[in-house]
Amino acid sequence: MDDNSKIFKQVDFFTSIDDEVLKQVTSAFREVTYSKDEVVFQEDEVGDSFYIVKSGKIALNKKLKVDESITGELSFFMPFDYFGELALIDDEPRSGTAIAAKQTTLLKVNKQDFLNICSRHPEVMLSIVKTMSKRIRATNDKYMNMWDELLKKNKLTAVGTAASKIVHDIRNPITVIILTAQLMGSVYEGSDEFAEKIVMQANRINDMVKEILEFASGQTVSLNIEEVNLDNYFIFMVEEFQPLCETRNASLEIENEVAERVNFDQDKITRLLYNLIRNSVDAFGDNPGVIQIHSQLKDNNLHLQIKDDGPGIPKEILTDVFEPFITVNKKEGTGLGLAICKKIVTDHGGEIKVANLPEKGACFDIYLPLRADA
Question: Which of 70, 78, 189, 332 has its CA 20 to 30 A from that of 346?
Fold first, then answer.
């Protein structure tokens, strides 16, 4: 097999063609060399040839509708790539201008010669049609993904607008709640502890809404990194989250293997753990369940593992579970909880992973650097 035949075997149009037919195909092509910046074909001219890059690099440019004197790069073609294939099946003008980005050798065949081969060997045209069908499907998928991203962006913009209004609307009521709680703590003996909890929860409501606003706007959040004693932190966590668990007949178990102090933003990590615990409790439904949190040091990271014995995460959303607006079988919520969790971890320079457990339940693994930037 000569060098050109080896090249053709790398082109998806011809991978299924037997060697005898492939010889006839390759014989119809001729080598053409272009110097750097030399034009192969111009946009809007009628196509009459199909090209395979043997060596070098081709840039495909297109005029911008707003100003045709300006062109934008659509793509590049490297060795074994092909272009101009639509000229084989239609008489439409070229959709872009092909230019040699450096000295380039192409294998070129004109339309009529190629059609003559296809008339003698229909399997060649069938292979081309199959390949182009795959390309069209891939292009459709690409643009559907782009459309999905655009819709998500628009949804986030709407959420951001709503969150801005909510932050404004709830500021006065929250201020009244906080002042009333503080007054209650100073007037009624023995009520300090309860007043502090009211103030803390009121501030949390405000912070949660602002967090959604920050996420929707894509703002970079400055973290309040501080040293944390995990034994004390988990005592606080049990006090915070045990009432939520008890309302749904769920139990919370914590095992801490970390004696030294670690560094993170306590408010953000508490919000992260709240989201995960709330998701587990919701997943239990009316059934009892167990949520386990385990902490250890691993590879210079604080490793937090949160797992439950619930039904797990549906397979159809497992790979996309950290994307905005992904939610299944939940009557409440914005669909932003896990997306916000991921952002909190990413802002800390860490990583979050999720998997379903072999027996049952879901497991989240969170890795936070031991020395996070303040």
Answer: 332
